[in-house]
Amino acid sequence: MAAAALAVATTTAAYLFGPGAGESPAASKKKTTTASAAAAAACKADPRYPKRQLRGLWIATTTNLDWPSKAGLSQARQKAEYLKILDTAAKRNLNAVFVQVRPASDAIYRSSLEPWSKFLTGTAGKDPGWDPLPFLIDEAHKRNLEFHAWFNPYRAAYESDVSQLPANHPARQHPGWVVKYGGRLYYNPGLPQVREHVVKVVDDVVSRYDIDGVHFDDYFYPYPGEGGQFADKAAFAKYGKGKSLAEWRRDNVNKLVAEVDESVHARKSYVKFGISPFGIWRNKAQDPSGSNTSGMSAYDSIYADALAWIKAGTVDYVMPQLYWPRGFKAADYRELMPWWAGAVKGSGVQLYIGQALYRVGEDQSWSKPGELAAHLTLNRKYPEVKGDVYFSAKNLLANPLGAMDRVVKEFYSRPALLPIMKQLGGHAPAKPAGVKAAGTTLSWTPSQGARGYAVYQVPKSGESCYETDNRNLLAVVTSPSYTAKGAGTYLVTSLDRLQHESKGTSVKVS
């Protein structure tokens, strides 16, 4: 991710009261109409409090960037570090985490297909003595954080010597699958066996673990300039079938994306699949459909054609990494975000923006504490933007220049429900029954099919706007109880795992 953010610089010069008793029909009608108009006005969606918005956090395991902080930590220490990240995310009203479970053809979970990651124990293939993934998922769910398993599809190893890898490593068992490039090993995207293996790895996780999403980052073919030419001539000669090399490479990536999409939804229809591509698809100078930018083109340099995935519907969302500030000449946020909004418009593919929290305070261009908040202000003008995801976890903890304090104060003061993806099915559970108050403790009977419950406080005016926005949303909880802050009327709704919402049941606390 960090390398991707720098690519522009290195490639350019870079949401029963009827008529009153005793009143005449005309007076009653006028009063009712006025009341209805007032209610409608009172419940007009307030853009400051979007009902649904994805607020995510990347948690990178590669090179121990975020978690665990270093290899070889005890299980207790690993758990404590992870819970600190989740507690911080929940405190800041985030609602999703994207956790890297496969950094480089290795596993942060018990796998029969790939070896244990060295970022757990310090030694590739060494059993850490526990399977972290059920813990990682369960603790996220307890905090109302959707869990997306993040895979790097093609990175095979950080080493270039196959003999250094564990005996059960796919690259060691199938040396013909890999290409040495820039001192590392990459799987050759042009080989059908490679695509089959990646799909099998993803399906294994989807089938065995209670994840909410499958996520790919921006690493497809290697970024240029790291090791000369990518040596895939033999595969191209065998499988190219009259295409140009560039067309063939893009087709290889498109095939993998389509195959993963089909596999994920065949296994569990509700699991989301999306990708966070490099922020520039193509520049307008290269393609009239491109953005008014002058940085590296993902389409041409790493053969990632996000517009093709959007058009084909082989992703549920895209999350472009827009890691540049407003006014950055080669890749201005004010140019790129609207371009991506236009790219997904009418497609059914959701758009979230990858935000560069890690760059805040890094240099002069990111010296403004309010830059990230300004990005979210701009996003409000484009209904296609359904949320933001921050890179990465350690920077959320560090909060450089207090930038996240500002984002939370201005945009995340209330929780939010997740955006609905209609194509994944699901439906609202029955509304909560048996809602009662004992002192300030609210409780209710669990609704069948409910994964969580939203708790709202009805304002003194009695105008509950819970179906419109989240101005009165207090919390999203996973258990059928909630401790109210004080007297008043509260309203509870049921949510399925995709956060389709039931009608509300109200209760008074005196």
TrEMBL record:
Keywords (A to Z) from UniProt: Signal
Record bears the keyword Signal: yes
InterPro entries the record matches: Divisome_Glycosyl_Hydrolase (IPR052177), GH (IPR017853), GHL10 (IPR003790)
Matching Pfam families: GHL10
UniProt cross-references to SUPFAM superfamilies, sorted A to Z: (Trans)glycosidases
Glycosyl hydrolase-like domain ranges (all copies): 53-363
Protein name: Glycosyl hydrolase-like 10 domain-containing protein
